[in-house]
Amino acid sequence: xxxxxxxxxxxxxxxxxxxxxxxxxxxxxxxxxxxxxxxxxxxxxxxxxxxxxxxxxxxxxxxxxxxxxxxxxxxxxxxxxxxxxxxxxxxxxxxxxxxxxxxxxxxxxxxxxxxxxxxxxxxxxxxxxxxxxxxxxxxxxxxxxxxxxxxxxxxxxxxxxxxxxxxxxxxxxxxxxxxxxxxxxxxxxxxxxxxxxxxxxxxxxxxxxxxxxxxxxxxxxxxxxxxxxxxxxxxxxxxxxxxxxxxxxxxxxxxxxxxxxxxxxxxxxxxxxxxxxxxxxxxxxxxxxxxxxxxxxxxxxxxxxxxxxxxxxxxxxxxxxxxxxxxxxxxxxxxxxxxxxxxxxxxxxxxxxxxxxxxxxxxxxxxxxxxxxxxxxxxxxxxxxxxxxxxxxxxxxxxxxxxxxxxxxxxxxxxxxxxxxxxxxxxxxxxxxxxxxxxxxxxxxxxxxxxxxxxxxxxxxxxxxxxxxxx
Amino acid sequence: xxxxxxxxxxxxxxxxxxxxxxxxxxxxxxxxxxxxxxxxxxxxxxxxxxxxxxxxxxxxxxxxxxxxxxxxxxxxxxxxxxxxxxxxxxxxxxxxxxxxxxxxxxxxxxxxxxxxxxxxxxxxxxxxxxxxxxxxxxxxxxxxxxxxxxxxxxxxxxxxxxxxxxxxxxxxxxxxxxxxxxxxxxxxxxxxxxxxxxxxxxxxxxxxxxxxxxxxxxxxxxxxxxxxxxxxxxxxxxxxxxxxxxxxxxxxxxxxxxxxxxxxxxxxxxxxxxxxxxxxxxxxxxxxxxxxxxxxxxxxxxxxxxxxxxxxxxxxxxxxxxxxxxxxxxxxxxxxxxxxxxxxxxxxxxxxxxxxxxxxxxxxxxxxxxxxxxxxxxxxxxxxxxxxxxxxxxxxxxxxxxxxxxxxxxxxxxxxxxxxxxxxxxxxxxxxxxxxxxxxxxxxxxx
Lengths: 471, 447
Ligand SMILES: [Cu+2]
Fold this sequence. Notes:
CATH topology of the largest domain in chain B: Immunoglobulin-like
Structural class of chain B: mainly beta
CATH superfamily of the largest domain in chain B: Cupredoxins -  blue copper proteins
CATH superfamily of chain A: Outer membrane efflux proteins (OEP)
Distance between the termini of chain B: 60 Å
Shape of chain B: globular
Radius of gyration of chain B: 27 Å
Distance between the termini of chain A: 109 Å
Order of helices and strands of chain B: HHEEEEEEEEEHEEEEEEEEEEEEHHEEE
Number of helices of chain B: 5
Oligomer: heterodimer
Number of domains of chain B: 2
Number of helices of chain A: 11
CATH class of chain A: Mainly Alpha
Structural class of chain A: alpha+beta
Bound molecules: copper (II) ion
CATH class of the largest domain in chain B: Mainly Beta
CATH architecture of the largest domain in chain B: Sandwich
CATH topology of chain A: Outer membrane efflux proteins (OEP)
Order of helices and strands of chain A: HHHHHEEHHHHEEHH
Number of strands of chain A: 4
Radius of gyration of chain A: 36 Å
Largest sheet of chain B: 8 strands, mixed
Helix content of chain A: 55-70%
Largest sheet of chain A: 4 strands, antiparallel
Number of strands of chain B: 24
Number of domains of chain A: 1
């Protein structure tokens, strides 16, 4: 008996010491960065933590906004600079602390009682450790680690969400600016028509009704132009928010036009599988299932036990005045709660996690198919505009010029032809925007770049003729 | 034109798309459907090449001077930019062979029209016969629809009058009809279909008939020309007459030619000249000759007695009639000969363009040029700029005003040509003698 008693204290001390674990400095951010970088090739993922390193990021942002923004630089700025994302990173620290907490044992409980008799005082001292925590420590650590992984998955998911939002907002902004420019040209043609009508009127060559019609069309276009230009402001502000820019930083420029879609079309084959493998929301749900499984295992192991205290007690024998030592056991009696309800809850939670995972996977597959279909439709529409519609419109303009040369049609028909051409050009830009937004959506749906996507060719957009294109 | 193949390939795309939408196909097919439909559409207008049918090519319509008959029975008529119909004699009957068929006619270099005509030309070759002689005319129908030939103004038996349904059954495609008669009254007549007449005449089926007097010395003439007037609606950039047009014609022709594609009328100084003019268009044409006072000597109703003629400078040629004018070419020079309705001496033009005369267009060129490359503001000072500059026009389209004279742009089109009166032309020489050289001191000078 004495040997056993002797062994108890050092064992207890060991357990207590073993619970003290060091908090790693990056709170798991390296993992987040590794995964996110793999999904966003070429982009830097940084967590600004108020260190001198932060200056490097500020400089990088300043450099990127100097030249017309490319889609990748917009994403890069957001990754370095979006304040909400940086705030999210702090959750890593919170979650990691929880993981550490799971490794710590509850502090032992010290007790004392003194029995006072007629002539005797017999003091007793005890130290009791919640021994259930000791037994379940590794299980609880596994659960907390699983939760921590879940938080890291969430974090990468947030990064990908942001990148996709930035890309959509970016393509929308470039397209809207281009459309506004094209509409501006259309307004200029209406202005010339209105001026011509006014000059005709001064010469007595047009009736007031026909002249007024020209003025009215021009006036209508002016207000439409303001509406279209206002849209570009909204687009810029959305990007400012996503990129975390303010003050002088908001004077960035966009390129004049969207790049052409690649000539080849992505295949749907295997894309669903890629999505299932890559998507972080699915990884998170898998992690939840894992956590629920650990929790259930633990619950089943414990059964009805909810309190298991082990400790030592030292007591002075009132008769012999000697200190007596002995073990203390505290135990739950399974009279009322035998743990069935707790296990049933954990089982239900595990089933819920599994079903949520299936639901998410079903949605993810559907999202991939939908995004792919949108992408293909937009790609074909853009190609159709480029190969067929714009050349047809150009031919109308060319033939109008010939008819005008023969005095077979007049200035108003010529200008109307140009307006139709500009309308078609705006429709083309709209199709390009649809394509690039669909592309961002599809890559978001498969949580990373399309397998073997050919690089976009920015220089080869169908030419939308503008002033001075031809002699 | 939509070919069957086009129809089916496009139809297939639509079918697939529809099948996907109503759940007739499995989901994979439904996935592909929108893409396929878009793809099929992408093969649509862009993929089909515009057939290069408009206009095409046609032989230049030269004036062919017919050979004089061996028996010297008459002096042949010269049909400008056309010819007379050859004949054979069979058992004392003069036999002509007309073939009604689609033809391509060059109106002037740069414009070829898809017409219908006779013996590869429009107007058909002039049929020349002698008063009282028996003629037999075979009419072979190579048109896609039936036809007849009506002998306009000629006193033929009722059964030879050529009115489809009234005096004869129509001649079906591929068949030949035979007309036979003798004409007692010399004069200028016409022939044209009286079957689906509106279409067939709008397409150019018509020709002239000249009946020479039995006595070649009667009304003897040195130069005898024939001109058929017609109007066409061949819109700029097209090549086929719009047969439904009633009023808004844009091509006005002498023998289905427009200036500068019409040959001149070369005349030897002192020649007695006759010009026979027929009109099967839908409006009258006041034909005007510069430099002369002439007489109208006949209609297709016969010779006008000398006592009933009066001197004139312009003769109105009514619709559905012929007019002969005669004069002695005693004044050398290049004398304009044209319809005096000014629009009829123009080529393709629009009657519905904004009026820019007197409108200040200063600076407009630059502004519009910035928006519509290549545009040139015109019309402020008139339309003469048109004749001075050669600018790209729609295909198969002639400039409204064209032609170059010795002093600059001639600014004419349509029913316009020149009577060239020269000393010393050989009889029977109808070659263009070039521009007239005005004797010193007889020409306008600029101050
Ligand atoms: Cu006329």
